[in-house]
Amino acid sequence: MKIVIIEDEIWTAEDLAETILQLQPESQIVATLESVKEATAYFRKNPQPDLIFSDIQLGDGLSFEIFSALNISTPVIFCTAFDEYALKAFKANGIDYLLKPFTLESVQAAFSKFNNLRRPGMDENYFKSFITEITAQMQPKNAAVLVYFRDVILPVKVEDIALFYLENEITHLLTFDKKIYHPKSTLDELEKIVGADFFRANRKCLVCRKTITKASSYLSRKLTVSVSVPFDSIITISKEKTPHFLAWLSGQ
Asked: How many CA atoms lie within 13 A of 176 on its CB side?
């Protein structure tokens, strides 16, 4: 089976290729493409593979633009950091997705659905629906988060928030001026509210880009993150999340 990977983060592409070959050793990664422009040029000159793994947001646009511009009938498994709420359109239209950070099990599950993705005649309108869906998800989020302080409800501007964290299973909000509040929302809900300037470092922490001062190497390709506000807990980024975190931190 011939496979093409479309991914602009080299670490993620390498990890995905390694996982694919571990699960499907008879497969051949015929190309790894890093941009909409490069992928479009490649598919115009080369035969279509049996399967495509494609990131959604590339440095020069959305990968959907590739499939809208060309007549590609190859099944596509989209690799994305968007949560499942944002991906309902994929399920509705019968295209599978691989949620970042991927695991051996999630890639295996994607392969198990491979036969269901063999749908010829995917036209431009088919992919335009995905572009519309994801573009909507990328629009600016709420300007404030509601918190409860004593007997009042206060709006805290998102731009004033350094990070969210869990402590004793209670959600905390820490501002840049070192105030702590307790929003009623879960971290999963807050992640949808605050938008792309925040990164879900792990199960217990959602951190703002502008509060990060540095990231340091840790065990087994993990990272630790230092922040500009007083915070006692160590913020770690897993090996699987590291490529996406570095891309996010650089503004990609």
From this structure: 10
